[in-house]
Write a structure and sequence with these properties.
Pfam families: Fapy_DNA_glyco (PF01149), H2TH (PF06831). 24% of the residues lie in helices and 20% in strands. It has seven helices and eleven strands. The protein binds a DNA duplex (16 and 16 nucleotides) through loops.
Length: 308
DNA sequence: CCCATGACCTGTTTGC
DNA sequence: TGCAAACAGGTCATGG
């Protein structure tokens, strides 16, 4: 289940093995994997041909690859709706990627056998002998091509402008996050998973950060003090950096880096997936509770539920 | 606007 | 043994 650390590992792999290369051809094997590209598979493939890939970027769980070399080509322009409205000089293009639940971006030797769930193949116009593959069992993830926000130095795709900065972004505003928490009438885990408040946190790292902070997942955000928010953010950053240092968390073969290798953070998890195992602080068995069609893992002693 | 919930998707595990 | 239900859960549309 790729969250920020896993996506960052993939970004680094793309940076090393894909950035700077020019696309020769794209094959779309499953339409659902390009569903966010509303102009369809043929348009996606045709417009990528000949483009050069720039530096790989990430915000939260989203990845993107700025591309250059094509003509003016927003989706609306390509559809012929209003080709004169958007001057091509004010914006760029980027390939947006989201791994969803089970998506993988793999750099494979050309001619390696196709994976069972190969959805998209990108061939390059060079002699390096490798290609980029998007493999995705559950098809929650996908690729698409978008205009970038005019003037944005990071070439942010316009369709993810609503996604908040992530806690490892130097420009993340801790004070603004605290103020937003105080305004919300919701509970802390919901807020941590809300990608418009803070991005990159999913079910695993939310439970880990809450365990480290000794906070129950249903604590109302309106009860948070500035120091409590600061401590929580510190634990979010610590656990993500620790995971990043060992290549992320791999529960099964569904999360791997671009070279197909797993991460090793699973063995360091304190709460997630540890139902009935002793809390590493106090020895009380960790509990699992159904929560929002998924699970929350917590220590019933260290993380007391809020009153009421 | 704010917040909560269901739909989407497939392979594996669990239970009767 | 076989089948069904539960489970994994990120994002977005929708409805209160």
């Amino acid at each position: 289940m790729p969250e920020l650390p896993e996506v960052e590992v993939v970004r680094r792999g793309l940076e090393r093995w894909v950035s700077g290369r020019t696309i020769d051809a794209v094959e779309v094997h499953h339409p659902r994997s390009i569903r966010r590209h509303t102009a369809g598979a043929a348009d996606f493939a045709a417009r990528l041909k000949g483009l050069r890939i720039g530096a790989a970027r990430r915000r939260g769980k989203y990845l993107w690859l700025p591309v250059t070399g094509g003509g003016p080509a927003s989706q609306t322009a390509a559809e012929g709706i209003s080709p004169m409205v958007t001057p091509s000089v004010t914006h760029g293009l980027a390939i947006l990627a989201h791994l969803g639940m089970s998506g993988q971006l793999l750099v494979q030797p050309e001619g390696a056998p196709d994976e069972k769930h190969l959805r998209i193949r990108v061939r390059f116009d060079d002699a390096l002998g490798t290609e980029l593959r998007f493999v995705d069992q559950r098809t929650f993830g996908g690729l698409s091509l978008h205009d970038t926000v005019p003037g944005a130095a990071d070439h942010l795709p316009d369709v993810i402008a609503h996604i908040a900065r992530d806690p490892l972004d130097p420009a993340f505003d801790d004070a603004a996050f605290h103020d937003a928490l105080r305004r919300r009438r919701t509970t802390i885990k919901r807020a941590l998973l809300d990608q418009t408040l803070i991005s990159g946190v999913g079910n695993i790292y939310a439970d880990e950060a809450l365990w480290r902070s000794r906070l129950h997942y249903e604590r109302p955000t309106a009860t948070f003090t500035r120091p409590r928010t600061a401590e929580l953010l510190g634990h979010v950053r610590d656990v993500m950096n620790a995971a990043l240092a060992v290549g992320g968390t791999s529960f099964d073969s569904l999360y791997v880096n671009v070279n197909g290798e797993s991460g090793y953070f699973e063995r360091s998890l304190d709460a997630y997936g540890r139902e009935d195992e002793p809390c590493r602080r106090c020895g009380t068995p960790i509990r699992r509770r159904p929560w929002m069609n998924r699970s929350s893992y917590f220590c019933p002693r260290c993380q007391r539920p809020p009153r009421g």
